[in-house]
Amino acid sequence: MTRLPLTVRVLAGALATALTVTAAPATAQTITPATAQPPEQATTRLTGEPKAPEDFVALPAVDPTIIQEMRYVTPHSFVGEPIDGYHRPLCILTRPAARALHQAQRKLLRQGYALKVYDCYRPQRAVDHFVRWAEDLRDQTTKREFYPDVDKSRLFADGYIAEKSGHSRGSTVDLTIVRLPPRPTRPYLPGEPLVPCYAPEAERFPDNSVDMGTGYDCFDTRSHTLDPRVQGRQRAHRMLLKTTLEAVGFVNLPEEWWHFTYRPESHPDTYFDFPVSWKSLVKGDGDRSKQTRPR
């Protein structure tokens, strides 16, 4: 890849220095430095699991300056527990989508911002987990934060949950923008009081991103990218994200300000189910030759 200009490399260096592993219990939300390639957990067993196609890559191998806060490996999600298939807090995407994010990141770094990804490739087994949760109408544990004004029985009809997800095709990403240098974020503590995801920024669960008007995965019409109730700097932030990503080939889902798909998709009709793991990307016996750092 093209060597970044000096000013961008300085910003990237500052970002990489600022990103440190959060010292928190295993159940807490963790933001890992994007340059890390942590070993698999000892309890993880991927023998016999499907592997990713060769055109899937780990985002840190393409751009280590993009922040990763992979929510579904933690209990801080609308399901309230780690999601099936997420073995590591790692963003995996098709190579064209990852390269396009790298181009978007270069533009944002020059303006004093960075991208932060919440979710990237999503295994079909994770989507199945979402479906099981949505069908269990007795489980209302996370309602106050993630769907305070929506009856859980409406999640399928209103389009918040579906049996298939574009994420499973590998070119869709959920993300936001962080102002540099990134502020530290505290871990989510299971059982803590929940606040509606559309509450004012100072009241809802803290996130070091710019204020987008709602939190991530907020099942509410206020999450629609162009919702007229979202104005001022919140709307400006949404437009910055939208226009930056559209300029490099992504298309926004109008119902979710955080959801973008790179077009044309590499696998428009295939829904993959390999786990989110470094091992899913390994070629042969431990060969990570395709997971190289950008030059």
Q: How would you explain this protein's 3D organization?
A:
- The chain has 295 residues and is α+β, with helices and mostly antiparallel strands.
- The chain has 6 helices and 7 strands, in the order αβαββαβααβαββ.
- The protein has helices at 6-18, 59-62, 95-110, 124-135, 143-146, 232-246; strands at residues 56-58, 67-68, 92-94, 113-119, 172-179, 250-252, 259-262.
- The strands form 2 sheets. A 5-stranded mixed β-sheet has the order 2-4-5-7-6, covered by helices on one side. The chain has a two-stranded antiparallel ribbon with strand order 1-3.
- The termini are close together.
- Mean pLDDT is 86; it is low at 6-10, 16-46 and 284-295.
Total helical elements? 6
Order of helices and strands: HEHEEHEHHEHEE
Assign an overall shape.
globular
Low-confidence stretches: 6-10, 16-46, 284-295
Intertermini distance: 6 Å
Strands across the major sheet, in which order?
2-4-5-7-6
Helix content class? 10-25%
Spatial extent as radius of gyration: 18 Å
- Amount of beta strand: 5-15%
Counted beta strands: 7
- Major beta sheet summary: 5 strands, mixed
Structural class: alpha+beta
Arithmetic mean pLDDT: 86
